[in-house]
């Protein structure tokens, strides 16, 4: 079947909740993906940063195969050896006391919200039902009803109400607005250290440090959503590391399983996660042996193959090349590591047509918020491969 035939099938039978480029992929290897007609593309999206280790990494393939043949699911009614080892290894790597594994990123965010609320009631002494969590304009934390309740993007919310109360939205980057939003009922501040879906929006320098200090002063939890920015994507284990801050809670997902299986987790010290009692939270698939085996190997690959440093060095090189291109269509280039946003001018008339042109030349990326192209290739990419890609990017953007 051709690309067009597959596209027609999807358009006929699948709900249209996405607007993908019309390329139908069936194979991936490293930084490359191939469509059903055999065309080869450089993946510059990495499944929204879930494939940091590259497509179908041989070590992840082997880890998945071995575990599939042994044991895939127990539920949390029973213990499993892979869960125990995963918990130990991720806590040692991240320097947190405890971890609560889930599946999707949105589930992990919901878990963090529940933990913050119960912490507020049982540890801070907030009156029952009064806990508030402060969030930020431009935020994207998932698609569940509670999470979209505190989105500032109207298209995420239209016709999906009524919404969950208990959230305050303040301007991202405005520390004075955040200070004014605090009350005695503030249980937590939830933030993306770099806003990905909003268009790779960077906080002012020192902003995360100010939030950390403010949360300590006000006795509130500092929660960092590092689902997209964490695990090496920005050239550090976590984007928060750029300001040498350690949030009370860090949420991870996406690259935690290298694109093989939905695995997410909430990391925190014991004074936060010990608020949960048996029966109060869980998931049939959360912490399953297959997911845990894959996640353990995915974390080891990040360390063994020095992918975090590579993301920093190659990402810096990539941004320098994009700036040097001096395109008349480009208004701004921003990012950290291999999470890069190219904001186009108003005269460029949107980013999608540029993404479509790049697709025809063998580079896959995706527009975000109409006028921004996001570049986020797997962390295994080399400077030489960036040079090859830049020839095509320059051709399109110039």
How would you explain this protein's 3D organization?
With 398 residues, this protein is an alpha/beta fold. It has a single domain (1-398), classed as Aspartate Aminotransferase, domain 2, CATH 3.40.640.10. It has helices at residues 3-13, 46-49, 58-68, 81-94, 105-124, 145-148, 175-181, 207-218, 270-273, 289-304, 307-325, 352-360, 383-397, and strands spanning 25-29, 32-35, 40-43, 98-102, 132-136, 167-170, 186-191, 221-225, 249-252, 264-268, 330-336, 339-344, 363-364, 366-368, 372-375. Helix 3 runs antiparallel to helix 10 (289-304), helix 4 packs parallel to helix 10 and helix 11 packs parallel to helix 13. The longest helix has 20 residues, at 105-124. The mean pLDDT is 97.
Topology:
Blueprint: H1 3-13, E1 25-29, E2 32-35, E3 40-43, H2 46-49, H3 58-68, H4 81-94, E4 98-102, H5 105-124, E5 132-136, H6 145-148, E6 167-170, H7 175-181, E7 186-191, H8 207-218, E8 221-225, E9 249-252, E10 264-268, H9 270-273, H10 289-304, H11 307-325, E11 330-336, E12 339-344, H12 352-360, E13 363-364, E14 366-368, E15 372-375, H13 383-397
Helix pairs in contact: 3-10, 4-10, 11-13
Tell me the number of helical segments per DSSP (H or I, 4 or more residues long). Answer: 13
Please name the CATH topology: Aspartate Aminotransferase, domain 2
Strand fraction: 15-25%
Which architecture per CATH? 3-Layer(aba) Sandwich
Number of strands: 15
How many domains make up the coordinates?
A: 1
Mean pLDDT: 97
Strand-and-helix sequence, N→C? Answer: HEEEHHHEHEHEHEHEEEHHHEEHEEEH
Shape, principal axes of CA atoms: globular
* Distance from first to last alpha carbon: 35 Å
Class from helix and strand fractions: alpha/beta
Question: What composes the largest sheet?
Answer: 7 strands, mixed
**Name of the CATH first level:** Alpha Beta
Radius of gyration: 21 Å
- Ranges where pLDDT stays below 50 over 5 or more residues in a row are none
Strands across the major sheet, in which order?
Answer: 4-10-9-8-7-5-6
């Amino acid at each position: 079947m051709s690309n067009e035939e597959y596209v027609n099938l999807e358009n006929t039978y699948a709900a249209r909740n996405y607007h993908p480029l019309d390329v139908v992929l069936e194979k991936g290897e490293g930084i490359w993906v191939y469509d059903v007609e055999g065309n080869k593309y450089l993946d510059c999206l990495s499944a929204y940063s879930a494939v940091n280790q590259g497509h179908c990494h041989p070590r992840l393939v082997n880890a998945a195969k071995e575990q599939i043949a042994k044991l895939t699911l127990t539920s949390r009614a029973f213990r499993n050896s892979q869960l125990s080892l995963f918990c130990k290894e991720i806590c040692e790597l991240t320097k947190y006391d405890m971890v609560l594994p889930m599946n999707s990123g949105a589930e992990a965010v919901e878990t963090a919200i529940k933990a913050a609320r119960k912490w507020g009631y049982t540890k801070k002494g907030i009156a029952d039902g009064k806990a508030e969590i402060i969030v930020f304009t431009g935020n994207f934390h998932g698609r569940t009803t509670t999470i979209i309740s505190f989105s500032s993007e109207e298209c995420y919310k239209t016709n999906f109400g009524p919404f969950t109360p208990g959230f305050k939205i303040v301007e991202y980057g405005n520390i004075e607005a955040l200070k004014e939003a605090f009350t005695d009922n503030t249980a937590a501040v939830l933030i993306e250290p770099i806003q990905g879906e909003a268009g790779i929006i960077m906080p002012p320098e020192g902003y995360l440090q100010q939030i950390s200090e403010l949360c300590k002063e006000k006795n509130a939890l500092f929660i960092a959503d590092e689902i997209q920015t964490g695990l090496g994507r920005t050239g550090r284990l976590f984007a928060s590391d750029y300001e040498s801050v350690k949030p009370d809670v860090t949420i991870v997902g996406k690259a935690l399983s290298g694109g093989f299986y939905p695995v997410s987790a909430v990391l925190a010290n014991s004074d936060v996660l010990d608020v949960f009692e048996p029966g109060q939270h869980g998931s049939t698939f959360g912490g399953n042996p297959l997911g845990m085996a894959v996640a353990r190997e995915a974390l080891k690959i990040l360390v063994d193959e020095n992918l975090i440093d590579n993301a920093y060095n190659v990402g810096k090189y990539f941004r320098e090349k994009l700036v040097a291109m001096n395109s008349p269509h480009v208004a701004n280039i921003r990012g950290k590591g291999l999470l890069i946003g190219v904001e186009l001018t108003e005269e460029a008339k949107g980013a999608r047509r540029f993404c479509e042109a790049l697709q025809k030349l063998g580079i896959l990326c995706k527009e975000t918020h109409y006028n921004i192209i996001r570049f986020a290739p797997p962390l295994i990419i080399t400077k030489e491969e960036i040079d090859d890609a830049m020839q095509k990017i320059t051709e399109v953007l110039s």
